[in-house]
Design goal:
The protein is an all-alpha fold. The chain has helices at 3-34, 38-45, 52-64, 69-81, 85-91, 99-119, 125-141, 148-160, 164-177, 181-197, 201-214, 218-234, 238-249, 255-268, 271-284, 289-301, 305-318, 323-336, 339-351.
Length: 362
């Protein structure tokens, strides 16, 4: 081969390079013009059913734009819709999600691992391992901000997985984004309920009391206060429980509420408050003998045998043959400085051969 031939071939080779570069440029323009952006494609396919054509097209498009987070999310979602969960999860790997797409990707990943776990046969090691991954994803996702409906949904999922403390975290997250005061309070109360189930009485009481502060409904407020008091009492803090219930009980017309406050005051050793609350109980239910007998104990505990004696005499009139009542009346009369009443009771007891079962039993 001559030098001229070599020169000619060299010129021909170099002449073809612009043609190849031009073709590459044109293909790039086609990809840019014909293929929509990841965001545009996500909007186009968001409500469409997955079919072989759309999935094939998406595969080509994703290969052309490997780092587009929107495309990866769409691809993972479509693969998940047809049950190809491992491929869907793989599609979410190896790409950096920005602030606008990270929450969507995290939510989708959680949905995919859950769908895969539920599809596995029950009682298998694979299913157990898959649900452990769901738990890890749930714990990781609990630090994000969620719309209230989604937070409730994830909270219920946590409960389904026997994670009450985690469920409570999601209910608290829901309370932070609820716009209605009653809804915020209900979410906090739900959190308190499951915190108690998790054994965290302190956090439960705080959640219930925050719910009481949040709601504007008086009935809801009282219900949450009582729930908070229950949690405090479980923590062996009856005085704090009594302090939060007492203001409501003092003006309440609900016997059960006042009785609860009186019982807490008694547990706390605050005999005077228990006495006053007990008197309020009798104002609401004067003919209830159970409450009358309880009030006799409160009056005696507060050092007021005269008031106890008044109640005991009423009970004796209703049950004149009750030796235990007679005995309690005799002793209350002695402590009150009423010897004549005490003597009448002792005479009845002697005349009827009464032997008390226990001292001063009511």
């Amino acid at each position: 081969m001559s030098a001229g031939d070599l020169a000619g071939r060299g010129r021909g080779g170099f002449a073809g390079a612009p043609t190849l570069l031009g073709l590459a440029f044109v293909m790039g323009v086609v990809l840019t013009v014909v293929f929509p952006s990841g965001r545009e494609f996500a909007e186009l396919t968001g409500k469409q059913r997955v079919d072989a054509y759309s999935l094939a097209y998406l595969t080509v498009l994703t290969r052309a734009k490997r780092d587009d987070p929107n495309l990866r999310i769409v691809q993972a979602r479509q693969l998940g819709e047809i049950g190809r969960w491992s491929e869907a999860l793989a599609a979410l790997e190896g790409v950096t999600f920005d602030r606008a797409t990270s929450d969507a990707a995290g939510s989708l990943r959680l949905a995919l691992v859950l769908s895969r776990a539920r599809a596995l046969p029950e009682g298998t090691d694979e299913r157990v391992a898959a649900f452990e991954l769901v738990r890890r994803e749930l714990h990781e996702a609990s630090g994000r901000s969620w719309p209230a409906p989604r937070a409730y949904e994830l909270g219920r999922l946590a409960l389904e997985l026997e994670e009450p403390a985690l469920g409570a975290r999601y209910f608290i997250a829901a309370s932070k984004v609820e716009t209605d005061a009653s809804s915020r309070a209900a979410a906090l109360a739900e959190a308190g309920r499951w915190l108690r189930a998790a054994g965290d009485e302190r956090a439960a009481s705080e959640s219930f009391l925050r719910a009481a502060e949040t709601t504007t409904d008086p009935a809801e407020k009282l219900r949450y206060v009582l729930a908070g008091a229950d949690a405090l009492e479980a923590l062996a803090r009856p005085c704090e429980a009594a302090d939060i219930v007492r203001p409501y009980a003092a003006t309440s017309s609900e016997v059960a509420v006042v009785v609860r406050a009186a019982a807490l005051s008694t547990s706390c050793g605050n005999a005077r408050d228990a006495q006053l609350l007990g008197r309020h109980v009798l104002e609401l239910a004067p003919d209830d003998e159970v409450h009358v007998r309880e009030q006799v104990r409160r009056e005696l505990g507060a050092g007021d045998p005269r008031s106890a004696l008044v109640l005991l005499e009423k009970l004796v009139k209703k049950h004149p043959r009750d030796g235990e009542l007679r005995l309690s009346t005799a002793r209350a009369a002695e402590w009150s400085g009423a010897p004549q009443i005490a003597l009448e009771q002792w005479m009845f007891l002697v005349a009827n051969g009464h032997v008390p079962r226990r001292a001063g039993a009511l």
